[in-house]
Amino acid sequence: MTDPKPDTPERPQRATAEMVARIAKVSRVAVSRAFNPDASIKPEKRAHILDVAQTLGYAPDRAARALVTRRSHLVGVIVPDVWSPWESQEIDVLTAALQNEGFATLLFKTRTDYSIDPTLLTYMRGFNPDSVIAFTENVRPRTLTKVLDRAVPIYIDYPQTAGDGYWDREDEGLLFDRLNILTRGGIEQAVAMMQGYGARRIAYLSGLSRSLASVAREETLRSIMRERGLPDPVLFPGDFTYDTAYSATLDLFRLGDGADAIFAANDVGAFGIIDALRHELNLRVPEDVMVVGFDDIQQAHWKSYNLTTVKVDIDQRVQALVRLILRRLKNPHVPPMEETIATRLVVRGTVGKRG
Amino acid sequence: MTDPKPDTPERPQRATAEMVARIAKVSRVAVSRAFNPDASIKPEKRAHILDVAQTLGYAPDRAARALVTRRSHLVGVIVPDVWSPWESQEIDVLTAALQNEGFATLLFKTRTDYSIDPTLLTYMRGFNPDSVIAFTENVRPRTLTKVLDRAVPIYIDYPQTAGDGYWDREDEGLLFDRLNILTRGGIEQAVAMMQGYGARRIAYLSGLSRSLASVAREETLRSIMRERGLPDPVLFPGDFTYDTAYSATLDLFRLGDGADAIFAANDVGAFGIIDALRHELNLRVPEDVMVVGFDDIQQAHWKSYNLTTVKVDIDQRVQALVRLILRRLKNPHVPPMEETIATRLVVRGTVGKRG
DNA sequence: TTGACGAATGAACACGTGTTCATTTTACTG
DNA sequence: CAGTAAAATGAACACGTGTTCATTCGTCAA
């Protein structure tokens, strides 16, 4: 109350293009051009301006720039759980790649059941992301584009087998850019290896029931097993989490008929399975039950698990993602494109000789 | 080249306050007021405007708003590894809390050796974060404030014992808001328990050598052990990662003299220790060697590790963080404040009877 | 030297919003 | 009903930048 002024600018004002111009003895427009690679300005003049800007710690205000450019250089990432190993590893690599291209990652959390609060989209819209990457499938692309008109939505984990009406697919092609996982390669190797070691009753621990990623893996698994003359996989329900996988495994072996081998929808689930088998059911892995995961997260090589798993190459995925984003940002009118990442089996210690 | 126009506005223009005003038959200023809780506007008028805005999917453009308000509602988070379990779990909770308050998390990655690229600060500055949370200590607060003049920097993992000159501390108090961990409580319980089970030679696996968090834990450990008449802890160097912990443990037992118990600077390091002991050195945990971690990350309760560890309550930390941020944003001139989070031991299975 | 042409320059405008301030309307008191 | 204070309104300006367009500068050939 007795303060002299509520808004006393004690700290030095942030450097602005105007200030740089004044000190460098040039016009403000020249400063703008110095920071815009395509603008025409005499090289030595640009160098001088950048030099002055450097000493002043000046960088163009992205808010002001966004206002006129219509480019925020922000990429929104929608994710249920940041701490989930696979997602966090992908966000890590993605953030590095985006940072390299002059973008920054903007994080938004959805409910953990992978559903999106409708108000979240409007909320997100206020930040004007140039692109949106949804780590969840429970929002229809059309809904996204309706709200985020200026943003470029990209969907990942989009299974190839799930185009049957649920998703917006026009007759002549795609409506949106997509990034797919070609699950077949890795799963085929996994089944071959398990079968080679004598597994016949193979169970599948699913992810969240409505998850398209989980469904795609399940269908691929079943189709491969049929081709190889194996009985259909025993299905038991998970939700991508350790705890659920743990108790589901107990149910499978105590209430159900067990299995020779288990294929999990993701690595974390596989960890839950392994721990339930070893520490609660007194079964050996792989001698009594083989386990295969999906993702190949960092933790998969930890010695306690040493998990044989289907690897999805994160670097490849992120490169493809960034490629898609930049392509569409450069020209919003190019037709939607779809990139596909292959998978392969990483052999460690959870598949092996029986007995 | 033959395209009609490069800028054809095919998709509907994003709704603006102007459009809302026109449809709702009010002035644009009224729309602004409707979205500003403190502004004075007739309640039914506001309701009507918000209603129209709702159907148009309108939300105020934060870039434009930031330009005049000087508030971007962005909180920058500087972190070396997003996927690192502890960091990703804290980012997860923090993002949820910030989202709840109308802010969004902006992610920036530093080099993995925890050092900050000087250009990153200028880069970050362009985005005008209202506040910056640094998950790394290798940047001096003063450097940060120099570049991010408008932002409110907050430091976490700031050890209480490390105020000796390295950090900017004025005689009369703090220069910046801080969040501390009171390591003593949890470590004291851990040492007492290990000693109770007969451990005498206790080793400390450090984090990154220059990490203040690691140094603080080490000093607290040593001081407690001295008070209890134990010999100084054997120090062996880690860097918070699994792999380094693993090989460092092999060195400790093959080249060095081993230990009765090991206290790790973080949980992930403890996992590496446990796996090296069990799977490579054929030692039992806790019967041959006890292990205690620090953090209590989600993975600590996984049955393969079942780690006894010093818990830092993430929810408490995030609540304190958000409190600090909002407080300073509300009034940038309040004196810096320091909050401290207590720790406590979570007892699981890696400390127990010897033999 | 003149002419012409491309490169470089700066004035003015636009982006979408919050805020100030003078003005008008509403509500309440006597 | 008159009078007054409080509440609500709208015009104009500001925020910091990119961009357009008419103008000026520089260069080189004739």
TrEMBL record, chains A, B:
<keyword id="KW-0678">Repressor</keyword>
<dbReference type="InterPro" id="IPR046335">
    <property type="entry name" value="LacI/GalR-like_sensor"/>
</dbReference>
<feature type="domain" description="HTH lacI-type">
    <location>
        <begin position="15"/>
        <end position="69"/>
    </location>
</feature>
<protein>
    <submittedName>
        <fullName>Transcriptional regulator</fullName>
    </submittedName>
</protein>
<dbReference type="GO" id="GO:0003700">
    <property type="term" value="F:DNA-binding transcription factor activity"/>
</dbReference>
<keyword id="KW-0805">Transcription regulation</keyword>
<keyword id="KW-0804">Transcription</keyword>
<keyword id="KW-0238">DNA-binding</keyword>
<dbReference type="GO" id="GO:0000976">
    <property type="term" value="F:transcription cis-regulatory region binding"/>
</dbReference>
<dbReference type="Pfam" id="PF00356">
    <property type="entry name" value="LacI"/>
</dbReference>
<dbReference type="InterPro" id="IPR010982">
    <property type="entry name" value="Lambda_DNA-bd_dom_sf"/>
</dbReference>
<dbReference type="InterPro" id="IPR000843">
    <property type="entry name" value="HTH_LacI"/>
</dbReference>
<dbReference type="Pfam" id="PF13377">
    <property type="entry name" value="Peripla_BP_3"/>
</dbReference>
<dbReference type="InterPro" id="IPR028082">
    <property type="entry name" value="Peripla_BP_I"/>
</dbReference>
